[in-house]
Each structure stands twice: as C-alpha cells, then as structure tokens.
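hiii, so i know i said id send this last week but things got crazy w the move. better late than never?? heres the sequnce for the chain we talked about at the cafe, plus the structure i predicted for it. fair warning i was half asleep when i ran it
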Amino acid sequence: MKPLRVLLVISTQGWGGTEAYVSLLAKGLRENGNQVWIACHKKGQIAQSIKKQPHLSINLAPQFYLWSLLKIVLCVLFHRIEIIHGNSGKDYWLVFLAGLVTFKKVILTRHLMSPFSSHTQRMALIKAENIIAPARVTFDVLSRAGIPEEKLALIYNGIDPEPFKIPHGKYRALYRLPEKGFVTGIISNLHYPKGKGHFTLIESIPEIRGRIPDALWIIGGTGPLLPELVQSVKRLKVDDCVIFTGHLYPHQVPHVLSCLDLFVLLSYDYEGGCPLSIMEAMASGLPVIASSIGGNTEIVKNDQTGYLIKPEDTRSLIQHSHFLYVNQEKRKSMGEEGKKSIQGFFNYRRMAEETAGIYGKGLY
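okay and structure toks below
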C-alpha cells in the first residue's frame, strides 16, 4: 500500500486511554512508513511526549476555535494530508469542519461506550467515512443507535508491551515496599463519581489484611476524587498499608506495575470501551480482577488471565484476592497467559495495521 499522510486530532490536556491510543497509533503508523501529524493542545501531556514529532498546537476554547480550525486546514493543504482522524468528543466538530473545507476523508474513533449526541451523530453520518469502535460492546452501542454497520469498524486497542518487561519487584524500594509483601494495585485517573472501583477496593482492605498480614496496596493516579479516597483509607484505619502515588507520568506506570502481584480495575460505568490499563497490567505479567462490564470482558479471560466480577462486589474481590495470594502458581500462570494475549493480539502494531487498512479504503 502507498504510504499515507494522516492528521490525528486530540485536543485534551491530560493523559489517559485516549491520549495513549493516539500516541501508540501514531507510532505504529510511522513504523509502517506512513507520515503522521498530530494536532494537540500545546499544554497537553501528549504534546510533551511528541516534541520531536510533527505536530501543531490547537486550543478549542471559544476564542481560539476558529484559529485552531484554520491551522488544521492549512496543515491539511500544505502537507497534502489525506486522512483527518478525530479522537474525542471535543474534536469531532473541528474534524467535520476541516473535512468539509478541504474535502478530505474523515475518520472517528469512539472511545466511550455511549452513543454520540444527536447533532454529532447526524454530522458523522454525513461526513465520517468510518467510525472505529475499540471494543465489540462499543460497536454494538453505536449500531443500536442507528449508525449503519458498514460505516463501523471494530479495531481493538493495543499497547506496546516492551516498556512493561521489567523484572518483578525491581522498583519496590523506590516506593518503600518490602521485597516479599503481597501488593495489590490500581492505576487510573481519579474521577467522580466513584472512580474505577476505588471505594470497593478500599472497603475490602480490612478483611483482606486480616487474612494476609503482609498485604499492601498502591493507588496510582490523581484527580478530584483523591481527597475522598484518602479520607476513606483513614476512616478504616488502613492508611499504614496503602500508598497513594499521586500523578504518574506514562513512563512511571511500568515501574509501579512491576511492584504489584495483582491488578484491580472495577469500573462502575461504561466510560472506557477497551481499557489500556488492563492491557498494561497483563503485559506486566499480572493477574487482573476486573468488573464484568464493557470491554473488560473482551480483554480478561475469566479464570485464565484473571477474574471478572460484578461492580461493587466486595465479597468476590476478597475471595479472589485471597485465592491468588495462596495459589502462587495460579497467579503466575494467569500472568503468563495475559502476557501472551497482549503480545499476540492486543498490541499497537496490529491496531495500526488494521487502522491503516480503514484509511486506505477508497483512496487509491
């Protein structure tokens, strides 16, 4: 296939699954010989991670919106961009308008497991050539909302497993963790109303600690929910065995995961379609206990790479955590199966190849 010229648009300032997706997609596309530009907020974390790569700064605040649109249009025309790819709700209309002005192909990725707003969907049906769903559940939600299946493309997320090939326990001293303690962790942005099952995890700590005297917990990430989580830990008088890392830069995540024996992500809602945090934990060789909703069920194989439980099911979390503590071989085998799953399928190279196939349809 002839090399493609692609503009990826991502206007958010923080770092999460969507930003990691854009960064990894750009990496995979470039490795396959394509030319990629990224339009992003100049103060966003993704801009800091791609300083030496082709990119332009945008700001979707009302006073800068038309200027950002003009910059994208000029970039598309000057660099002969063929594909404009929008990646978050705030970006979609900017991408639609740029596509209408330049007559270029528009692609969207819908990272949330919820339909578009009615106005956005009407425009997507007119202008978007394809809409990528990163999980089957997202595909089905969009299909039920009225988007024709021929316009949808199911392309699972993927990560780069290389940064997660760190010997277990290598960074424990950095976080003041004992060499032989049983460490459970969760890493995510700490957003309202309930985070990713953080309160369920914290509520399980007193009983698990009674069963596992050397148990410890790491809660990684920051956000508006952090003060409430700290208070919950103090209320239960378990603050001596819980570590809050605060903000983590992307390169620090593998370090924290290497400290863990078990990873937990108990999402309550359908905010994330195909969580990269679960993939990163599996790439680190960790068993995963996840809530049985959304894309979690498409990544975690129950009883093979981890366990799927109902959201807020504290009892099951306690039972599975204790079982994995006692059964070290089961813990190890789950971790190995998880690694194989990431390396064999949930990797960024496969994701980039499939996405490039969508880009190329009808171009040549």
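btw The mean pLDDT is 93. thought thatd interest u
miss u guys!!
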